[in-house]
Write a structure and sequence with these properties.
heterodimer; A: mainly beta; 6-stranded mixed sheet; 4-stranded antiparallel sheet; 0% helix; globular; B: mainly beta; 7-stranded mixed sheet
Chain lengths: 114, 114
């Protein structure tokens, strides 16, 4: 069974600094997708970034980027120039290509210190 | 475009009562998902539909839970009778099937069973 592990229950960073959230996954599939979702206190689930496994290039969305290491089954999220609005729970998620079920990690709570 | 719309946003009811949660997916999305989020278990997929047909209900905790999708624009999750351990945030999400399209989440319903 596919599993997603986020080993950092909590992280904190100073405003304007850079922080990296870790995610590893276990799969025997070769075709899959990876996602990071953000859940602020308002409890919305907001897509931050996505990555196709067949793409070697790491996805980037403004201040958010990933470090996708397929062989190591690692998918970390880097947030540059952290802002107070980045404070949230961050969930890593995995989906097999052609399937629809998302498997979520347990989440990392990110605190931004002013 | 409107996102996934869930109602109610909050629900407080007494044990034993019937609870109905509602969801309107994004127009054109073929897949609809119901999740439950708790501190202890994180995000759990309860059931998902494709073209209004239930595909996988293996996450539905017990017979007290039922879900329907009578048409492409409406789904319900019903709990009867409700119990205090059903207290959680329930999310509905929808997606289109192509490629790396992510699931789009509603704002969730916070359910409290007294």
């Amino acid at each position: 069974a596919q599993t997603v592990t986020q080993s950092q229950p909590e992280m904190s960073v100073q405003e304007a600094e850079t922080v990296t959230l870790s995610c590893t996954y276990d799969t025997s599939e070769s075709d899959y997708y990876l996602f990071w979702y953000k859940q602020p206190p308002s409890r919305q689930m907001i897509l931050v970034i996505r990555q196709e496994a067949y793409k070697q290039q790491n996805a980037t969305e403004n201040r958010f980027s990933v470090n996708f290491q397929k062989a190591a089954k690692s998918f970390s999220l880097k947030i540059s120039d952290s802002q107070l609005g980045d404070a949230a729970m961050y969930f890593c998620a995995y989906r097999v290509g052609g399937a629809q079920k998302l498997v979520f990690g347990q989440g990392t709570r990110l605190t931004i210190n002013p | 475009d409107a996102g996934v719309i869930q109602s109610p946003r909050h629900e407080v009811t007494e044990m034993g009562q019937e609870v109905t949660l509602r969801c309107k997916p994004i127009s054109g999305h073929d897949y609809l998902f119901w999740y439950r989020q708790t501190m202890m278990r994180g995000l759990e997929l309860l059931i998902y539909f494709n073209n209004n047909v239930p595909i996988d209900d293996s996450g539905m905790p017990e017979d007290r839970f039922s879900a329907k999708m009578p048409n492409a624009s409406f789904s319900t999750l019903k709990i009867q009778p409700s119990e205090p351990r059903d207290s959680a945030v329930y999310f509905c999400a929808s997606s289109s099937p192509t490629g790396v399209q992510p699931q789009h989440f509603g704002d969730g319903t916070r359910l409290s069973i007294l």
